[in-house]
Design goal:
The complex is a heterodimer of chains A (339) and B (451).
Chain A lengths: L2 H30 L5 H9 L5 H18 L1 H10 L1 H20 L7 H28 L3 E2 L2 E2 L9 H25 L2 H32 L1 H9 L3 H24 L5 H21 L2 E3 L3 E2 L7 H28 L9 H8 L1
Antiparallel strand pairs in A: 1-2, 3-4
Helix pairs in contact in A: 1-3, 1-6, 1-7, 1-11, 1-12, 3-4, 3-12, 5-6, 6-7, 7-8, 7-11, 8-9, 8-10, 10-11
Chain B lengths: L7 H17 L2 H21 L2 H35 L1 H35 L6 H30 L4 E4 L2 E4 L2 H5 L4 H29 L5 H35 L1 H8 L11 E8 L4 E8 L2 H7 L21 H30 L7 H10 L2 H17 L2 E3 L3 E2 H4 L5 H31 L15
Antiparallel strand pairs in B: 1-2, 3-4, 5-6
Helix pairs in contact in B: 1-3, 1-15, 2-3, 2-5, 2-7, 3-4, 3-8, 3-15, 4-5, 5-7, 7-8, 7-12, 7-13, 8-9, 8-11, 9-11, 9-13, 11-12, 11-13
Classes of the chains: A mainly alpha (339), B mainly alpha (451).
Chain lengths: 339, 451
């Protein structure tokens, strides 16, 4: 049994779940900047209060899973991306604190809201930068990082950070469309299309840039026999999504943008994984090079196989319990009741 | 001298010590309060008395804020292990990693998954489903302490592994989890959590009693927490005693540092109540001692031999003996004071005088933070006393740190200090404000009759 392969699949799956769940929460933070009224901030933040800590747990799980199945990666990647990941963690501290404490801050509430927006943006941006630096490839010799502390600061990585910001904002917009009504929803519909277009443009640029910047991925693309068919498929898919988005915004179908956001994210993510596979530290360290001893992988795998399905079930249950739309007039009451 | 000691290693150590100290303030209350809330909700479902519901509603908000602060300080910690201690991650990851992933899988997901329902679902799900959520959160917090204490105690007394190519390979997971010091660490920590929580609840009640709000809810909180302390503190002192005897077997150098003991004494070792351990002269100065006490406590005989620091070569002695020595004394002193408080409180309770003595409220209020202080002091004894090892006897702390520039980690330390002090300062202030003000009148009989 190839436990490294199973673990890699679990980690790939968990990253997707994290991007979808926490991505839409982070997106809410980005979108808050577009709303001036305090009331709107209450509505937007209210929708993520019951779920944010559970979603952030997926990030901790990805860390722990890497630590147990590929400990060398945990050590090497985290030191290589030291500064962007550190800044991301600081943003996560501030973000969590502002969600938790804003309800009790009275006159300082708006400062917490500002911190919430800045730290949400920071988290997305540094996540994107880290992802960019990671797929570009890290200079590793003998399982030690040999680059400098500022290697991550490249144009491509910053573009990747912006790409993440836009994707998360689009996801957040879709998520909030399902959770709100009235004036806020109307404004969100207004944002949906531009965000989607930006998302498409940056995705396309990414598809074109990545092979140019990263020779190992270019080689992979060239080895595809169905090269043109592949690109045709991408364009077709984006075309279909565009039509659906236009339909959704035109006829105010509030569930569709989120579904389209999910499709885009899953699609982009799949392409990223195919490009990297089977390397876990690009350009040349594969999952089998850094596998933990088989005993460690099997032991933690037992836990994962038993627990993860249960975790997924109650994650769904939790979203189902809090599926209701947040009514505008009652927002302040809800906040009061819950605080 | 001072400047030359600023190395990447020392900055990394300080950064971890700071981050983990900030973190450990919150989990004990999470553990203790989740059990307390579970008991309250159970009592409420069983007796249908609204008083329990009121106390529940008062504490659940404090629980939520405390939980949030614990999560965010903890997320940071889990990544710091890889960032600053990559050599440790590479070396011990095959053991520590799976234990941590079990913690996330069985505990963190459970806690954070059901917390939302516990906090905001009271109107959305049935009472039984809500009670189930509370049970799940409580189980989550207890499992979390199980796994993290397994990882920590394994680093104190590593078992069940072999080293192949400079990397630890686990051979027996039962031996790894149930390593010799695990039961002592776990029970000591869980009791600490319950004691910290009882002291916090007692202190909160004492504050309200001092404001002359003697409602049944506050009275009941006070009685509950004081009687909990009466049972838990003596038990904790006994467990602590057994823990130190276990440490004597497995980590004698730590015990020697705790005792500040440099020479072997054939006629029994005295316990230094006061002293200044001096690493250079290898002596403890200005001692105030109780004869035979050390021997008696550690070996259960008056003239039993206890370990001394000169038995260990300098490289294997704990690096900061002064800190270990004094943290231990702070912890023990606070433990004894808690014992006194609980005993006096219980006697007053038996004599039905508990709500007639203002000085007792004041004393309880002053003692409220003592649980947390003792907790931090105790952890300093355990962790600083483990030095110079990170995995006891297997990997030195100097070999565990990532290779990186001092400037980089220095800058990140400065950012961390700034952010943590502000964020967790405000967080703790908010928690204290919530404890001392009862804005919703949950504890006040007159304003509301329970919903």
């Amino acid at each position: 049994m190839d436990t490294s392969l199973i673990w890699a699949s679990i980690i790939i799956f968990s990253m997707l779940i994290y991007i979808i769940l926490d991505g839409s929460n982070l997106g809410v933070g980005i979108l808050c900047t577009c709303f001036q009224k305090k009331n709107a901030h209450d509505t937007l933040i209210q929708s993520i209060i019951p779920v944010w800590s559970g979603n952030e747990t997926w990030l901790v799980f990805i860390g722990a899973a890497l630590f147990s199945a590929f400990p060398a990666v945990y050590g090497v990647v985290l030191t290589a991306l030291y500064i962007p990941l550190f800044l991301m963690l600081i943003c996560l501290i501030i973000r969590g604190a502002s969600i938790t404490l804003r309800a009790y801050a009275k006159q300082f509430k708006r400062y917490w809201d500002t911190l919430f927006m800045i730290s949400s943006i920071g988290t997305c941006f540094f996540q994107g930068i880290s992802a960019g630096a990671w797929i570009t490839g890290l200079p590793i010799i003998n399982f030690t990082y040999v680059g400098t502390s500022l290697d991550w600061l490249t144009t491509f990585n910053i573009f990747c950070g912006i790409h993440f910001l836009i994707i998360y904002a689009f996801l957040g917009c879709g998520y909030m469309l399902c959770k709100t009504q009235g004036a806020i929803q109307k404004k969100l519909f207004f944002f949906a299309m531009p965000l989607y277009l930006l998302c498409t443009i940056t995705s396309m640029i990414m598809f074109l840039l990545v092979p140019r910047y990263i020779p190992s991925i270019l080689k992979k693309y060239q080895s595809f026999e169905i090269n043109y068919f592949f690109f045709f498929l991408i364009i077709l898919l984006y075309f279909l999504i565009s039509l659906t988005m236009y339909y959704a915004v035109r006829f105010k179908k509030n569930k569709i943008p989120f579904t389209m956001g999910l499709t885009t994210v899953i699609f982009n993510y799949t392409i990223a994984i195919i490009s990297l596979w089977p390397n876990i530290i690009p350009p040349n360290i594969s999952i089998w090079n850094v596998a933990a001893p088989i005993n460690s992988q099997i032991f933690s795998l037992i836990g994962a196989i038993i627990s993860l399905p249960i975790v997924i079930i109650y994650t769904i249950y939790r979203y189902w319990v809090f599926r209701t739309i947040i009514p505008i007039n009652n927002v302040t009451n809800i906040i009061k009741r819950n605080s | 001298m001072l400047l030359s000691s600023i190395t990447a290693l020392n900055v990394a150590r300080f950064q971890f010590a700071f981050a983990v100290t900030v973190h450990i303030i919150f989990p004990p209350l999470t553990i203790g309060l989740s059990v307390f809330l579970l008991v309250l909700e159970g009592l409420w479902l069983k007796t249908k008395k609204s008083i329990y519901q009121k106390i529940y509603k008062f504490w659940i908000k404090i629980f939520a804020v405390n939980f949030g602060l614990g999560v965010i300080s903890g997320v940071f910690l889990s990544f710091q292990i890889g960032q600053n201690w990559s050599q440790f991650s590479n070396f011990a990851g095959p053991v520590i990693g799976p234990l941590m992933s079990y913690e996330v899988l069985t505990a963190f997901f459970l806690e954070s998954g059901f917390l939302g329902i516990m906090l905001f679902g009271i109107k959305k799900v049935s009472r039984c489903a809500h009670f189930f959520a509370t049970i799940m959160v409580t189980i989550g917090t207890l499992l979390s302490s199980f796994w993290i204490m397994a990882a920590n105690s394994w680093m104190q007394t590593p078992r069940g592994f072999t080293i192949i190519d400079g990397i630890i390979h686990p051979t027996n997971w039962i031996e790894i989890i149930f390593n010799p010091s695990f039961p002592y660490h776990l029970i000591h920590m869980l009791l600490t959590a319950f004691i910290c929580t009882s002291l916090t609840i007692a202190g909160t009640a004492a504050w309200h009693l001092l404001q002359n709000t003697k409602t049944p809810a506050i009275k009941s909180m006070f009685t509950m927490s004081i009687s909990m302390l009466f049972y838990l503190v003596p038990l904790q002192i006994y467990v602590g005693h057994q823990h130190s005897r276990n440490t004597l077997i497995h980590q004698p150098a730590k015990i020697a540092a705790i005792e500040g003991n440099w020479e072997t004494k054939n006629n029994g070792t005295s316990f230094y109540v006061f002293g200044i351990p001096d690493t250079k002269q290898e002596k403890t100065h200005y001692t105030l001692k109780i004869p035979y006490l050390s021997s008696l406590l550690l070996t259960h005989s008056l003239k039993g031999k206890t370990p001394n620091l000169k038995n260990f070569i300098k490289e294997n002695r704990p690096t900061n003996i002064f800190l270990v020595f004094w943290s231990f004394r702070v912890m023990v002193l606070l433990g004894l004071l808690m014992m006194l408080l609980a005993t006096v409180g219980f006697i007053l309770h038996l004599k039905k005088q508990l709500f007639k003595k203002k000085w007792f409220y004041r004393w309880t209020l002053i003692m409220a933070p003592s649980g947390h202080v003792a907790l931090i002091a105790g952890w300093i004894v355990t962790e600083v006393g483990r030095q110079p090892w990170v995995v006891y006897g297997i990997q030195r702390t100097t070999d565990a740190v990532s290779t990186m520039k001092t400037q980089k980690i220095g800058v990140t330390l400065a950012i961390l200090l700034l952010v943590d002090i502000i964020i967790f300062g405000i967080g703790s202030y908010t928690l204290l404000t919530m404890m001392k003000t009862d804005t919703k009148g949950y504890l006040n009989k007159k304003t509301r009759s329970g919903r």
